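Lecture 7 notes: from sequence to structure.

We start with a single chain of 127 residues. Read the sequence below before looking at the structure.
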Amino acid sequence: MITRTASCACGQLQVACEGDPLLVGQCHCKKCQRRTGSAFGLGAFFAPEQITVSGESAEYVQLGGSGKNIRQNFCQTCGSTVYWFPEKLPGRVAVAVGAFADPDFPPPDKSVFEETKHPWLGYAGEN
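Now the structure, written as tokens:
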């Protein structure tokens, strides 16, 4: 069984994930845009028994675009959000795909809140 490890920017907070994610989703809601500082959020969803957290985290609870709370866990040292618990998906833990720093990570299965998706996404730029 494959084990992938996600970590914050400084490496203090890590999440080891056993097996494949149950779902990989990208979210274009404005809250995820602000949480990530990017155009969208990208999360790999696992069952709680698939993950092992090491290191210290702080938690920030925010009302998500779905209208349900999201308990976001981030590194107290560098501030990177590494994993979160979406109330909308009980029994699931989302881990930030970027925290794996793995270009071979499985692509998204689902995309939500596309009404606030940046229209230029998909643009590869000029060589």
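The helical segments are 30-36. Keep this in mind for problem set 3.
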